[in-house]
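Backbone-to-sequence.
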């Protein structure tokens, strides 16, 4: 009986795989409908971890929690993760950050995000300066392409 208790205590002291620390964030993406009446408004946020775990949160109206919000989890393949990293370096955003547009529109929908590489946060502004639009869009496209098609079809079709 004492051996069984000792074995149980030993097993309980070993951390479970599900309790391991999360991997670092590789990329974030967000989009929203802009200023609309609550029945038409929506907001979506996506977090992709370096190990491929993805969390997508979609909220209707102006809610941020509760029944108006749906959270989905998925896995991103190694090729898609590499595609995000490559897009950042190919566009040179890790060496020359995108600038924000000075005169941004008010009230409309928007999307943006960030990528985290080698301890550096690379911002992907919703309204980049005109010269930076293609560079930012290339990385945002790589991020959205990494999101599984079923989630894109259901939650990102309006972006």
């Amino acid at each position: 009986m004492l051996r069984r208790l000792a074995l149980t205590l030993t097993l309980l002291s070993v951390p479970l795989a599900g309790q391991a620390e999360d991997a670092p964030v590789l990329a974030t993406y967000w989009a929203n409908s802009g200023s609309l009446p609550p029945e038409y408004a929506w907001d979506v946020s996506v977090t992709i971890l370096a190990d491929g775990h993805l969390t997508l949160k979609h909220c209707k109206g102006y809610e941020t929690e509760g029944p108006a919000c749906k959270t989905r989890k998925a896995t991103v393949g190694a090729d898609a993760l590499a595609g995000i990293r490559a897009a950042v370096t190919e566009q040179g955003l890790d060496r020359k950050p995108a600038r924000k547009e000075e005169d941004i529109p008010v009230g409309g929908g928007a999307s943006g995000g960030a990528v985290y590489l080698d301890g550096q946060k690379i911002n992907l502004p919703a309204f980049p300066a005109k010269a930076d639009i293609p560079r930012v869009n290339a990385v945002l496209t790589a991020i959205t392409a990494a999101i599984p098609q079923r989630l894109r079809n259901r939650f990102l079709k309006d972006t």
